[in-house]
Design brief:
- 2 copies of one chain form a homodimer.
- Chain A is an alpha/beta fold.
- The first copy, chain A, folds into 3 domains: 43 residues, no CATH class; 124 residues, Response regulator (Rossmann fold, 3-Layer(aba) Sandwich); 146 residues, Rossmann fold (3-Layer(aba) Sandwich).
- In chain A, helix 5 crosses helix 12, helix 6 runs parallel beside helix 7 and helix 10 runs parallel beside helix 11.
- The longest helix of chain A is centred in the first third of the chain and has 16 residues.
- Chain A starts with 5 loop residues before the first helix and ends in a 13-residue tail after the last strand.
- Strand 2 of chain A pairs antiparallel with strand 2 of chain B, so a sheet runs across the interface.
- Chain A binds a DNA duplex (16 and 16 nucleotides) through helix 2 and helix 4.
Chain lengths: 338, 338
DNA sequence: CTGAAAGCGCTAACAT
DNA sequence: ATGTTAGCGCTTTCAG
């Protein structure tokens, strides 16, 4: 079955190719009669305009590129799905790449997106450094950064992480916890920096000392690393009053490690995660978590990007207010326990 | 920053455009000297060949299209991520669309993929009917169907659902359960049909009567629907010995509904899910599940697709053997309980 | 080994 | 209101 082109339609309808093109693009100056003819021909032939050719001829591609570290991570998965759905509403397609947290892959991905002539990009960089490295590349093509790992001078949509971490930490302090351990995140991540900032502010304000366990390696499985750290900790008999985990997935790993060591939350320690991903709400998990409003973030990012694509100028920045979803992994520490 | 084209490179290197093209494509008949020149020029200009133009000129797009019902579903999310990773290894990009289980969206998606000139497609259809409807469309472009909702005469990669369901049901029977309820799935889904087949075979073999609760509506949230069914059931005081849930996500909903009604697994009933998704392994869930080897499925599908793209003929079919992952949502029913 | 020229499918002035 | 004519950036015979 050969590809059906605009010529075929033109031939069948007995008009010129431009006329067909005009009909396809809703050009006003077309007689109703010919429009019918053409439409009928399209129908008969199952004609679908070739996006490549169209793009080449100067129209946009109606495609937006999404670059994320790992779309199987529920957090990104939600973001991507929301974005895809929102983009589809506006007639945009989405092309997706995972960088697996590798700055080199990230750079390649951005280049390939450009080669693909995406009309715009949604990027969640590995780190501000990696973002700045390829920041110049898009040259003109609109770009919104997702999450917090971006350098200065660019448009972004991010959750207010500092505030989220601060409020979570305050909550733990109010519950009477004093030895509060922040666990997880990769050194160099701005998200991490922001969350640590909120955490530290709370610690300082309450006269407590920060206790931070952060991954220094730049590649490899962060979750596994964190799980191992937690295990080691419990094995050594060290149990904080509470954990502020870098993410829900990490919180779950910590809880897992704890179970193995015969401990559990909230009995032996309280724990809060970040992101409020899908399974945190399961009664069996009931993880108290700082919610990032992923769906809203996905939509906002696409909306902003589309604004830019359609001529919007200037840098935009959306700071989404996080929300502490209280469930059942934290409990009040009684005075005598301290 | 203007787009840099092959002319710019040609000009800088002092050669013709064809020569640049040859270098870019690793054509053998090129003197080392000119190759160096050209490569240097590319480097200097940050030249990246335009994928659109290249596609238009007859080369493939090195893009594969993925059409799934819902990529935020952990099952598809895993599949997509595996596929994306595998495709990337071979230098292929991936473009993704969610159909949200709407046959019309599905058809549109397939058409758009064709318009995008994808070199091949991975499709997880809503139902065999919807697949057959657009089955003719791809006309020549290679296509692998994922999962079980495909009609006859097409290449596919699927898990052996019948066997999986059969073995799961047998396991429940061995545990001493007799009132075993199959809950979930959408009428018309072939996956459902296959699972039911396995379930029924086991029931019949053991002289038990099937008890099936299946969603008849063709759109809308399946998970919510199932949750509601389970709630209604518990509210009415009906509690099976065991559930065979259509999927893990549905199993979790059932468990949730149970908790609300003051019941829990495996105390009050046993339950097995399908898919062994990410969170089923969490100790807090510990859901016994029929594992679908999603990662392997993703890779196999891409591999087969690439074989086809590179000239492979004929229909392929991979039936992946499922595996029952025993965790802690099932228990032996004591004789006196019967 | 390299260049010139034709064309992939479509759009966008410019004519008519 | 419609047809004509150039390209868009690249590959690919076909000559040299």
């Amino acid at each position: 079955m050969k590809r059906v082109t605009i010529r075929d339609v033109a031939a069948l309808a007995g008009v010129s190719r431009s006329t067909v093109s005009r009909v396809m693009n809703g050009h006003p100056a077309i007689s109703d009669e010919t429009r019918q003819m053409v439409l009928a021909a399209c129908e008969a032939l199952h004609y679908v305009p070739d996006v490549m050719a169209r793009a080449l001829a100067g129209q946009g591609t109606h495609t937006i590129g999404i670059v994320v570290p790992d779309s199987s991570n529920p957090y990104f998965s939600a973001l991507c799905t929301a974005a895809e759905a929102c983009a589809a509403e506006y007639g945009y397609r989405v092309i997706l790449t995972n960088t697996l947290h590798d700055p080199e892959d990230e750079r390649d991905a951005v280049e390939r997106m450009i080669a693909q002539r995406v009309d715009g990009m949604l990027i969640s960089a590995c780190s501000p450094a990696s973002q700045e490295e390829h920041g110049a590349l898009p040259g003109g093509i609109p770009c919104i950064y997702w999450g917090n790992n971006h350098g200065p001078h660019c448009s972004f949509v991010e959750a207010d992480n500092t505030r989220g971490a601060y409020e979570a930490a305050q909550y733990l302090v109010c519950l009477g916890h004093r030895k509060i351990c922040f666990l997880g995140g990769r050194q160099g991540s701005r998200t991490l920096a922001l969350r640590l900032e909120g955490y530290r502010r709370s610690m300082t304000q309450n006269g407590l000392s920060p206790w931070e366990i952060v991954c220094q390696e730049q590649t490899g499985g962060l979750k596994d690393w964190c799980g191992a750290q937690a295990s080691a900790m419990f094995q050594a008999g060290i149990v904080p009053d509470a954990f502020l985990a870098y993410s829900d997935t990490i919180a779950v790993r910590i809880i897992e490690a704890a179970e193995t060591a015969g401990l559990s939350a909230p009995k032996d320690f309280s724990i809060i995660g970040f992101d409020n991903i899908l399974f945190s709400r399961l009664p069996q998990i009931g993880l108290t978590s700082v919610s990032q409003k992923k769906f809203e973030a996905g939509r906002t990012a696409v909306t902003r990007l589309l604004e830019k694509i359609n001529g919007g100028q200037g840098e935009t920045s959306d700071l989404l207010k996080p929300e502490l979803i209280v469930r059942s992994t934290c409990r009040k520490r009684k005075a005598k326990e301290r």
